[in-house]
Design brief:
With 159 residues, the chain is mainly beta. The protein has 2 domains: 89 residues, Tailspike Protein, Chain (Beta Complex); 63 residues, no CATH class. The protein is built from no helices and 12 strands. A hairpin with a 5-residue loop joins strand 7 and strand 8. The radius of gyration is 18 Å and the shape is elongated.
C-alpha cells in the first residue's frame, strides 16, 4: 500500500477569495459517498487522523494528510461558516510539489504528471506518455510540451 501526501502540516490553506482559511475544515469520505474515511498523519499509514480536520487561525491543518494511493477519496474543504471551498471526488494518487513562492510546480495524478520549469523537457524530464510540461521561459510553440512517445526523458513534443 503506497501513501500519497495530500496536505502538509506546514502548508497554508486559502479560501476562494485568497484569504487564509481560518478555522476551515477538510473532511474526508470514501469516494462517491458520504461515508467518512480516515486519512493518516504518517507515510506508513499507521496513525489515523480524524475524518474532519480543522485549520488553525493561520490556515494550517493540525497534521499531515496522507491517503492510501489505491483508495478513492472524496475531499471536502469548507470555510468556518461551512461554505464549500472545493470538493474533489474520487481523489487518489495525486500529489503536488509547491515552490517556496507558493506556486504549484508539478501535479501528479493517476500516473501522468503536469510540471513546469525552464528549458525544454526533452532529454531532461522523465515522465510517461500523456504528461504535460509548461515551459515558463518558452515562446511561440515552445511553451507547452506533451509527452507523446517513448519512456524516460525522451518523446516530448512542443505544441
Amino acid at each position: 500500500m503506497a501513501a500519497v501526501k495530500l496536505f502538509g502540516s506546514t502548508e497554508v490553506l486559502y479560501n476562494r477569495l485568497g484569504g487564509v482559511l481560518n478555522a476551515g475544515t477538510i473532511e474526508t469520505f470514501a469516494g462517491g459517498t458520504d461515508t467518512p474515511l480516515v486519512t493518516y498523519s504518517n507515510v506508513g499509514l499507521s496513525i489515523e487522523n480524524a475524518t474532519t480536520l480543522t485549520c488553525n487561525s493561520s490556515g494550517i491543518l493540525p497534521a499531515d494528510v496522507y491517503v492510501n494511493s489505491v483508495v478513492p477519496y472524496r475531499i471536502v474543504c469548507k470555510t468556518a461558516a461551512s461554505v464549500p471551498v472545493f470538493v474533489q471526488d474520487q481523489a487518489f494518487q495525486t500529489s503536488f510539489a509547491v515552490s517556496p513562492a507558493g506556486s504549484v510546480v508539478s501535479l501528479t495524478g493517476n500516473a501522468i504528471t503536469i510540471m513546469s520549469g525552464t528549458g525544454s523537457p526533452e532529454g531532461a524530464v522523465a515522465a510517461i506518455v500523456g504528461s504535460l510540461f509548461l515551459r515558463t521561459n518558452g515562446g511561440a510553440n515552445t511553451t507547452l510540451y506533451i509527452k507523446e512517445s517513448g519512456s524516460g526523458n525522451t518523446g516530448w513534443v512542443a505544441k
